[in-house]
Amino acid sequence: MGPYDHLQGMLGAEVDLVEYGDFECPYCRAAAPVIEEVRHRLGDRLVFAFRHFPLAELHPYALSAAVAAEAAGLAGQFWPMHGLLYAGDEPALTQADLRGYAETIGVEPASVLWPATRAVEDRVEADFNSGVRSGVLGTPQLFVRGEPYRGPISVSALLEAFEG
To answer: Is the pTM of the predicted complex or chain greater than 0.85?
Structure first.
């Protein structure tokens, strides 16, 4: 985990959590509110990093959503875009959806779509490659204190993992 990551919390916090995620993955969508609650409960004790791991062969909109989030990040709006991409019961990740999310968070809509997103494709690829090197096979893959987390993705189980 480093300054190149998208972080919520401060580097050097007592505990760290890294997620390799895919915006089209239903399991990542289910994990998002759990992670948010864990962040809320641990407060300043936790630093959370999100890294892209779009499973494009399974999820046709995952890559375009990842680069849209990165493009929003160039405008300082990564986390608001992240929240919108995971909002709702089902993914809504078409080009029209991405354009609408950009408008909602005050980002130029064309900036989150190809060809403008070419500038951030390397960032998504770097996250993906980092996941491959770390043994990530699917999403969400969490790392607690730098170690792969294999337990259930629930608030109580994650809190227990941090305390253990």
So the answer is: yes
